[in-house]
Structures are given as structure tokens and as C-alpha cells.
Amino acid sequence: MDDQTEGSLQDRAPAREQRFYHRLRRRLQRMTERAHIPPEKARYLLLAPDLFVLLARLARDPRVPGWVKRRLVACLVYFLSPVDLIPDFLPLGFLDDVVVAAVTIHTVAIGVNAVDPSVLEEHWEGEEEILPLLQEISAKTEDILGKSFRFVAAMRKSILDPRDRFNGRANGPRTRCR
Fold first, then answer.
1. How many CA atoms lie within 13 Å of 74's alpha carbon, on the beta-carbon side?
2. With contact defined as beta carbons under 8 Å apart, do 51 and 75 qualify?
3. Using H for helix, E for strand and C for coil, what is the string for the chain?
4. Which end of the chain has fewer CB atoms surrounding its CB within 10 Å, N or C?
5. What is the per-residue pLDDT across 54-93, written as a single tens digit (0 to 9) for each?
6. Angle, vertex CA 158, rays to CA 153 and CA 160, nearest 5
7. What whole-number distance in Å separates Cα of residue 48 and Cα of residue 52?
């Protein structure tokens, strides 16, 4: 791919990202109003677009290690999939996406210090401070999703698994990735 084509693809990515962001935010606002979702859960639901944009930007950032990018891309795929723990067509359907994204980002940024917090802050579009928010969501997983989704809290261990499930090689936080 030549430089001009690559540049135009990168220029279009933020535009697609913004369209998705605004569509998702409007959809979630309508959904929370129609379904009379409690304010605390609505607050988390409305973080979905901000977390999606953060995941997308981190996945494209050259300062983020390759092994982290693979986990972020897997999280993006989960986010975009309509079939997950709580189907996205239900009023609370994006709560699991919010929790999975927050736990993933929190774990790679704080748990193993693989992403500098300043990089998170640079890419964050939300109104609240990102690090305390990630900590809060990670700590309240069961409260947000309910006890039946307790295994999501245990997901942190698999995120940090040094065995790279994509290619079967050891490729964790201590191994340099190309």
C-alpha cells in the first residue's frame, strides 16, 4: 500500500469513528429514556461510545505494545458483536460491553503497566477522569452486571495470560512484540 492510500485510510478512520460514536450515543440515550433505566446504570451505558473510541484509538497508537493491541482488537470485536453476554438489542445490552472494555483497558494500563496513563488520557473523550472511572467499573463488575455474570470479573486473569492464544507463542507483557 502506498503512503497516499495509507494516509487516506487513516484520515477516514476518525470520521467513521465519530459517526459510530454519535449513532451509538443517540441510540443509547433513547434506549435509557424509553426503558426507564436507573440513573446509575444509564451512566455506565452512556460510557459505551467513549470506551469504544478509546479502544479504537489505543489499537491504532504506535506506543501501545502489539500484545496489548491484540487484546484491544478482540475487545472491539466483542463490542461490535450483537451476540454476547447481554444481547445489544436489549435495553441494558451494552452494559457487558462497557464492563469488558473497562476491565480490559484497566488491566493492561494499571495491572501490568503496559500502557502509559498519559496515552489513555490523550485518547479519552469522556467527561470523567479515565483512570478512576476504569477502577470504579472494574471494582463494581458484579454490581453493574449482577452476580450471574461473576465470571466477567475473573476475565482479568485471562487478559494477562502470557500464552498468546492468537498464535500459541509466549507473548505476554515481558516479551517484546514486533
1. 14
2. no
3. CCHHHHHHHHHHHHHHHHHHHHHHHHHHHHHHHHCCCCHHHHHHHCCHHHHHHHHHHHHHCCCCCHHHHHHHHHHHHHHHCCCCCCCCCCCCCCHHHHHHHHHHHHHHHHHCCCCCHHHHHHHCCCCCCHHHHHHHHHHCHHHHHCHHHHHHHCHHHHHCCCECCCCCCECCCCCCCC
4. C
5. 999 999 999 999 999 999 999 999 888 877 777 766 767 7
6. 105
7. 6
